[in-house]
């Protein structure tokens, strides 16, 4: 099967009109790709990549899924130029394709980003990042979310390969998404920023990222959900970058503690939870730097240890009403006799109907 003739025969079967034939041919292709001995020539690599792109957009979802599965061994078998072409094609489909195309191509692109060798990092950064950033700023929510998810994986693996100008562009686009009206977009933007922060230059981390968060949190009339988002971003940066945020904890910890105060967190259980999670991340990742705030952090933790967001001030009145209702039910039960029970009529038919 390693010969070019055998590969050509196999790829020809992937174009069969019968979806079952296409599925079996794709399955055989996956089996060959998984073999260490399988090493196609340059023309075979090109044709194989072209066929897989067609199969990823196949009408059969089973064929699509199997074609995506083939991408895992493929990225380790073919030259970088073909990986480049495939990623560009998949990225374009995510941005401009139909809903069905977008979903499966996003999965394929994500698979390639996760599985590709580190030696191809330059390709991923140079070719895919601009397209993903375009999608992040798209007006279509579905496109935005798919691009944010792929970008998160890309930055987690290859953020250190970004040039400073590219990092700045990424950060600007992602920071803008923290103010999105959609919670899903904000959540994925936080994940991307956390991955990016681990590789940002110090001046960009301290000034453009943490500094901007301070500015936004200090904005008068800031919506509670956005305030929570910025606090969650600080927690994510701490979990990802660890010690790098330690230099800023002298300002960051008091900021988070202030958000726990009643002035900001009254009747906002989510804000309290976000603050406590942030403090937990600071203590876990920067124990030395947070030492000066141990007392205040401990006080905040103890204060909310017994906090119950379901507790209501009029709980005693509600309990009294519940007791009164139970008393009434008991009185009704006392006036009830077996003579009033007619349930037996449905359960047991008359004798004259038995038999």
UniProtKB/TrEMBL annotation:
Question: Could you tell me which InterPro entries the record lists for this protein?
Answer: ARM-like, ARM-type_fold, CAND1/CAND2
Keyword NAD attributed:
no
Superkingdom, taxonomy of origin: Eukaryota
A Gene Ontology biological process in which this protein takes part is: SCF complex assembly
Question: What keywords are annotated for this sequence in UniProt?
Answer: Repeat, Ubl conjugation pathway
Region labeled Disordered — which residues? Answer: 313-355
UniProt-listed PANTHER family: TIP120
Kindly provide the name given to this protein in its UniProt entry: Cullin-associated nedd8-dissociated protein 1-like protein
Query: Per the UniProt entry, what species is this protein from, by scientific name?
Result: Chrysochromulina tobinii
């Amino acid at each position: 099967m390693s010969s070019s003739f055998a590969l050509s025969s196999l790829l020809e079967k992937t174009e069969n009109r019968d979806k079952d034939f296409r599925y079996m041919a794709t399955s055989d292709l996956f089996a060959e790709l998984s073999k260490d001995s399988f090493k196609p020539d340059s023309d075979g690599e090109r044709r194989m990549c072209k066929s897989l792109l067609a199969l990823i957009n196949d009408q059969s979802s089973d064929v699509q899924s199997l074609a995506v599965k083939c991408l895992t061994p493929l990225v380790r078998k073919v030259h970088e130029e073909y990986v480049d072409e495939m990623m560009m094609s998949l990225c374009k489909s995510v941005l401009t394709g139909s809903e069905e195309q977008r979903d499966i191509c996003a999965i394929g692109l994500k698979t390639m980003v996760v599985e590709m060798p580190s030696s191809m990092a330059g390709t991923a950064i140079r070719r895919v990042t601009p397209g993903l950033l375009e999608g992040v700023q798209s007006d279509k929510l579905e496109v935005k979310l798919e691009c944010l998810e792929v970008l998160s994986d890309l930055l987690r693996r290859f953020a250190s390969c970004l040039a400073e100008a590219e990092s700045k562009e990424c950060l600007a686009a992602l920071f803008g998404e923290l103010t999105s009206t959609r919670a899903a977009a904000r959540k994925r933007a936080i994940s991307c920023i956390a991955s990016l922060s681990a590789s940002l230059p110090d001046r960009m981390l301290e000034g453009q990222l943490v500094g901007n968060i301070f500015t936004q949190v200090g904005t008068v009339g800031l919506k509670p959900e956005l305030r929570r988002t910025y606090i969650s971003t600080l927690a994510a940066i701490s979990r990802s970058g660890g010690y790098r945020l330690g230099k800023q904890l002298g300002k960051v910890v008091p900021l988070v503690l202030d958000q726990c105060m009643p002035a900001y967190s009254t009747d906002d259980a989510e804000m309290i939870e976000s603050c406590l999670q942030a403090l937990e991340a600071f203590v876990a990742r920067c124990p030395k730097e947070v030492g000066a705030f141990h007392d205040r952090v401990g006080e905040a933790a103890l204060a909310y240890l017994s906090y119950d967001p379901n507790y209501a001030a009029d709980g005693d009145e509600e309990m009294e009403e519940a007791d009164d209702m139970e008393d009434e039910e008991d009185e009704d039960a006392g006036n009830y006799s077996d003579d009033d029970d007619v349930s037996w009529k449905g359960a047991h038919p008359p004798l004259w109907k038995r038999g």
